Amino acid sequence: MADRSETRGGGGRDRRSFLKYAGAGGAAAIAAGCKTRDRPGGSGFTTTPGGSGDEETSEGTPVPQPLEGNTIRIGSLAPQPDSFPIGKSIWDSMQMAVEDINQNGIPGIGGRGILGAKLEPLSGNTEASPGTAREEFNRLVQKEGCKATFGTFLTQCTLQIFNPMKATQTVHITTAATGPKPGRIVHERYDEFKWHFRAGPINSYDLAAAELEFLNIYADQLGWSDAAVLIENIAPFDPFAETLKPEVGNLFDSVPVFKRSSSGTINWTPLWDEVESADVDINLIGQALTGTAAVKQWANQSRDFEMGGIHVPSQVYEFWEEVSGACQYVFTMNAVTPQTENTERTQPFMKRYRDRFDTFPVYSGPITYDAVRAYAKAMGRYVLDNDMEEVPTNEAMVEALETYTFEDGIVLPSIQFTPPEADFAHEPQWTLMKDTGVPVWQQWQVDEEVTDDYGVMHSFAPEQNKTSDYTYPDWIDYPSDHPANQ
Amino acid sequence: MATESDESVLGGSTSAERRRAVLEKLNPLEMPIRFQLGLLGIVGFVLLPTQLYPDQMGRPTNLLFLMMFAMSWDVVSGYTGQLSFGHAFFFAVGGYTSAILDLQHGITPVIGIPVGMLLAGVGGLLIGIPALRLRGPYLSLVTLIIPIILAKLFTLFNNSLPVLAPEGLGGRNGPGLPTQLFGIDGSGAVLELAEGYSGIQQTALANYYLALGLMLLILVVLLAVTRSSAGDVFTAIREDEDAVAAAGLDASRFKLFAFVLSAVVGGLAGAVWVHTVQTPSPLGILGQDDIQTSIDVIIMSILGGTGTIVGPIIGAVVFALSAVVVGGLSDVIIPVADVAVADLRPLPLLAAAMATLVFAPGGVLRANIRLGRRILASARGDEYEGEPIGGGDSALGQIIEKYRAELREIIDERR
């Protein structure tokens, strides 16, 4: 009995001690929690007391500097910003925008910085992975104190940062992904996700609408009466294909081929055989991952049809060199090209970019440049209109971005975001290609007046952004009455 | 007076003695070193957040989910030797089910998560039944194709899947943003925490500790199953399926049980994942090319040691650490190739997995246990008489041998 009672007592003590220590250890760990940042709340900027100094513009007009003494950090969320053209263009262009603002102030207002506040850019590498995008967003906002972020290439990456965006109440402006879902979610769950905006490109439904508009205006002029459609089977092209499919037949005498090509296609010969045997004039493509092999084989095999549509590799300046000029005659829609003058500011930007980085940006670059400057201008105008002396809250920045129109763009002359009640909210207002001038229709051409040792990314449509006429493949034998011979 | 046969395996005839024996076994100071190290690892995981900021908590939380996935793979492939190359299918079924129930049917994740888990179990049954008729290489092919078919279905039913998902499966971008289990005040999460930065901290902690708790629960359940007589049958199936049948046991039933158990575990983890730190999308859950997550899970298990349950946890840690280390070598350039080491990801990890396959097929866990035993034997002045550190009869070796045998049978039949 004694033994038993001792045993029971001892065992009870052991058990209680064990549970006590285990419980205490666990509770202590949880109570200790994780570490706290110096810059909590994701408010995103270092605040020092605002000054009231004035800065003079070049014309001598004093520009109020109520935000002087503040540094506002903004983050770039780009895939491989050191090497991948879309990511590199985002980060490079953000740096250029920040330098412009810090030196020359807000477009149209002047001074230095955003009414005295200095902008500081920080780079995040999403690696085109949703998980990494979330990590990098949290790092930029919580650790580095970024007030806003810009970029994201894949829509999955954009969506993955929606919840952190909501938690930290941080504005993010998308400048590379085209999926319509973010805009739809902002519309449906505005209070939760009003922090998301897209400065461009237009979403994939609008891209399809732009292609239909382009075909409606130009198909006859260019001599296209029969068409094939081959769209790569990847997510960004889903809405594009959905919109195109029921409509494209109305624009041609016949569309004998309408297919989603595999994103792993390497050998294009069977598909080119099919398109050629269908005797079409134009092969309309949507290609992102498979575009290089497709173009090489089309040109090397001198196929008897023209080709273009959305061809992502052709938007990259280095593509000409990569395929040894095989992309000549291929056309693609684009936001801007090294030749176009979307606005009076486009060419100066392109030249400066070329001088600094020894290449031209892809579409994500100019869009990011516009987005950063639009954000800065919205902040500046909000501060001036409300006679403020401190940096607006992120809530106020949402209101500012919804309210003001940015009229100093290099892609679109003016940027106005769609309202919350729009089906796709906080997206760039876009109506028609012929009204807005975008997208532009770029074709790789040889133009010795521009350069004699490299291809030129000319634009042949729409009229206001045209830099050259459309050119026809020289290996195709056109009838005498064809527009190619006019 | 108690006879020897009356005594429990824990060494006591009375409940008090049994309790005492259990407590002695649970006493960390009396445990073998490998268990002590395991406990130390758990304490490390419990205390890890104290060394991190909330913005750094995403990776460790994700790592815990990867551990759950790897364990779920190990119970079916590591134990019974039925190689599954597309295990992320189960994670996706669990995740998508719960997300769609929440987004399109208004069903709270508290109910949606168990339903997701059950549906993944049904998925396990649907794959498990044909698996009984398929031999190794064919089963592997089937499991390889299944997540790719699932990804195609996501696109095919992008806008609508009658009754089940009226607003569709969302294509490549996924069905949307499901309700979070934890969030800051006013976020609409199932459990709203504090507001502002405190809320962000608490959310990160809650997600982490939920994942840790779930991982430990799964670990305990799977250890209990695999260390029971059912686990012995699993292992016997891997070693010699004919011998299992000769012993009068229905191997098919056990194989099916392993598949369903594995699917349920994977589905549960997948369902919780989409309500904490992952957005449901093919890229997010299935990974690059709809197959990367499945491959990662296999690599983790190989690195740690297949057929151990604990091995995949260690493999996942090695996997994560190697990603951090290699990713940090962005300034180290390989001279001839002129490429930064960081840009070579995931090649170093794949090379490590290959090296493990060749030099330590038992995985890091077994190799270290043997190394530890050799060191202890050496310290005692004894000669180490166990299996060689890297070699020996490993589960992976048996799986490969089983696979080879089945391939040989198929080839012989063709002849």
Automatic annotation (TrEMBL), chain A:
Residues 71-418 form the Leucine-binding protein domain. SUPFAM superfamilies: Periplasmic binding protein-like I. Keywords: Signal. It comes from Haloglomus irregulare. This is Leucine-binding protein domain-containing protein. Residues 32-68 are annotated as: Disordered. The keyword Methyltransferase does not apply. The keyword Transmembrane helix does not apply. It comes from the Archaea.
From TrEMBL, chain B:
GO terms for molecular function: branched-chain amino acid transmembrane transporter activity. It comes from the Archaea. It is a multi-pass membrane protein. Signal peptide: none annotated. The chain crosses the membrane at residues 33-50, 85-103, 110-132, 138-157, 206-225, 256-276, 297-326, 346-365. One of its GO terms (cellular component) is plasma membrane. CDD domains: TM_PBP1_LivM_like. It is found in: Cell membrane. The keyword Ribonucleoprotein does not apply. Keywords: Cell membrane, Membrane, Transmembrane, Transmembrane helix. PANTHER family: HIGH-AFFINITY BRANCHED-CHAIN AMINO ACID TRANSPORT SYSTEM PERMEASE (PTHR30482), HIGH-AFFINITY BRANCHED-CHAIN AMINO ACID TRANSPORT SYSTEM PERMEASE PROTEIN LIVM (PTHR30482:SF20). This is Branched-chain amino acid ABC transporter permease. It comes from Haloglomus irregulare.
